[in-house]
């Protein structure tokens, strides 16, 4: 998919999460605010709840984005939102 969209996919060294701090921070946020606070009876419920979580998170104001939500920031950046 990356190649078809002309996106370069970079890999980090194994065991070096500091090389990819933004993604690691996102994983921690998901772990603390979603996975540790939810239980799922099946895969369908997990998928439903994770879609809701992603929508909520992407519409929250973030201080790192000057008070904009990720969706607002994306809209202002001119970057196209890619869905896989």
From TrEMBL:
GO terms for molecular function: nucleic acid binding. Gene3D superfamilies: Ribonuclease H-like superfamily/Ribonuclease H. Residues 1-78 form the Integrase catalytic domain. Pfam families: rve_3. Coiled coil: none annotated. InterPro entries: Integrase_cat-core, RNaseH-like_sf, RNaseH_sf. GO terms for biological process: DNA integration. This is Integrase catalytic domain-containing protein.
């Amino acid at each position: 998919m990356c190649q078809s969209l002309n996106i370069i996919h970079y890999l980090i060294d194994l065991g070096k999460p500091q090389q990819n701090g933004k993604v690691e921070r996102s994983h921690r946020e998901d772990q603390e605010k979603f996975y540790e606070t939810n239980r799922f009876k099946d895969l369908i419920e997990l998928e439903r709840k994770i879609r809701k979580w992603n929508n909520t998170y992407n519409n929250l104001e973030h201080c790192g984005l000057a008070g904009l939500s990720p969706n607002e920031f994306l809209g202002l950046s001119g970057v196209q939102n890619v869905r896989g």
